[in-house]
């Protein structure tokens, strides 16, 4: 087993390398222009959450004088220093890309981002009038003086730090803050005399330019946009909480007031203002990030809608395929009875799942619906169908995960709405997040009960089902529906334990069964039988899993992994992991499906599910990983889906031993493979063969195909 700290990649630095791959998509000149801008804003949004959660946790450890370190051996202070260095470079690259490439390219397409100083007199007058009529009444200046304490600047809000004075003989400067309002669009369209010319201005730019009107009679010495990121983790003792819903609501009120962890200011902000803010926010100079341009690049996402009529500026539109195996209406139950059905999102529509729920809500033979909800959309047809079912006197039970990060408020609102409609709403097990994606429908058929089950890798969220790659299984197999019913009994508190043979359920049997299957591949190889492992997950962090995979590699078991985000395992190290390959794919859709395949001497074991390989997924969440038992579906995964991921040589990056990622190699003249593009063609265009690659069903590419 690996014990040296040098055998592991630091979790936080690995995540930053994932964000770098997102930035590379913004830098890629082959991408449509507005898609490049979209990826640029995603980098900033990702960094926000990284600071709110991960950096905040490290700073707390440092403040508590903790000497704790992860498997990689880095202590909190060392990790924070490495993060600072890496993020500085990333942010510099972001702004350089924005100013030197993206904004000039947008200008060539007649899309402009303006400043007030760059406008003609007519549009300066329009800007002043717009400010006075639509913005000024909302603004509230917050002075800082002996009678006015330093204000509570909200998390991720943009605030102007204003230096002003009252004209007089003994003039002294004072500080004040003006929050850029959140309730109106962050980017405003400017009037243009040319219809084909689209011009915009940032709301923060208008407020900054006309801020003197907020301080009548005062002399303004300067105003600088600032942005503070705060600790946004919720701290809840579930065992002490009398009412979990109310406790989380109270904690949400504190999220905007957590300890500051990052300060973003413009490059021209005076050192005096910086030092003043650092002192009041209890931050250090290393917590400051100076930028050339807007202090919040996420607001530029609104520009991606500017050229919606120019198809050359964005990815081609597509319509998800409607699965032929699901005819719709009551016939869907018959179709699921006949055979298991696998749905592949976003290439295939998520609508059949919503339709199945809606039909169940109206079907007089449906007696009960049980479901887990981790995240869902704002105007959720899923929630509406569940409410309709309850009104139609079905027994409806929904487990709502109140602790789904950054969706807590939405889920509280949904929980209350469902309870009011007569749905039994439960919040799961103390100390565990319920992250599994499970829907069980119980129906009376010919005098007996039959259950129908949907298990998935993604949330019941119609919007993200068009943006994330996920897989879902519809089945009526009693071996699976019986265990799903037992799981719901555990979640609702009606059973303390349950035995699972087919399902792998965290935190009960998933980790030990997974280790058992990895070790079984080692035994197969030692006995001269076929062995190989394929794993596709979002993150690989858990040390025990990494060590188990290292042990398999050391015995010669070929291991191929597709890991989108964090990977703490070092592949390709002689004597340690030389038989392990890791690739990451960042493309138009967020890779979100989890797939586990074990060669098992030619009788592959195939599992899909909600779980990544992180300590939280293995030990602190309820996850469901389910087997694929239907032979046709197994062939689809083994001969189509898995090889296509391993063949991608366009969007795939290969992880090297030192933690660096490089583009997957493609030899001159070899065919181009882009897995998401090929799936789009397969599902949404003229039917064609599922893309095949010259690879074994599990494990290494066939001889001569490694570079393809």
Description:
Helices cover 35% and strands 21% of the residues. Strand 5 (187-189) and strand 6 form a beta hairpin. Strands 14, 18, 19, 20, 21, 23, 24, 25, 26 and 27 form a ten-stranded mixed beta sheet that branches. Residues 236-242 and 686-708 have low confidence and may be disordered.
What is the compact description of this entry?
This protein is α/β, with parallel strands linked by helices and 708 residues long. It is built from 17 helices and 27 strands.
Keywords:
708 residues; disordered C terminus; Endonuclease, Chain A; 35% helix; globular; 17 helices; 27 strands; 3 domains; polyphosphate kinase like; alpha/beta; eight-stranded mixed β-sheet
What layout of secondary structure does this protein have?
Layout: H1 11-27, H2 33-63, H3 76-108, E1 111-114, H4 121-135, E2 141-144, E3 158-165, E4 173-179, E5 187-189, E6 198-202, H5 203-209, E7 219-230, H6 244-255, E8 260-266, H7 271-281, E9 288-291, H8 331-338, E10 341-345, H9 351-362, E11 366-373, H10 381-391, E12 395-400, H11 408-420, E13 424-426, E14 433-434, E15 437-445, E16 448-456, E17 468-475, H12 478-491, E18 504-506, H13 510-526, E19 533-537, H14 543-554, E20 559-563, E21 580-585, E22 590-591, E23 594-598, E24 605-609, H15 615-619, E25 621-627, H16 631-647, E26 652-655, E27 661-663, H17 675-684
Parallel strand pairs: 1-6, 8-9, 11-12, 12-13, 14-25, 17-22, 19-20, 20-21
Antiparallel strand pairs: 2-4, 3-4, 3-7, 5-6, 7-8, 10-17, 11-15, 15-16, 16-17, 18-25, 19-23, 21-26, 23-24, 24-25, 26-27
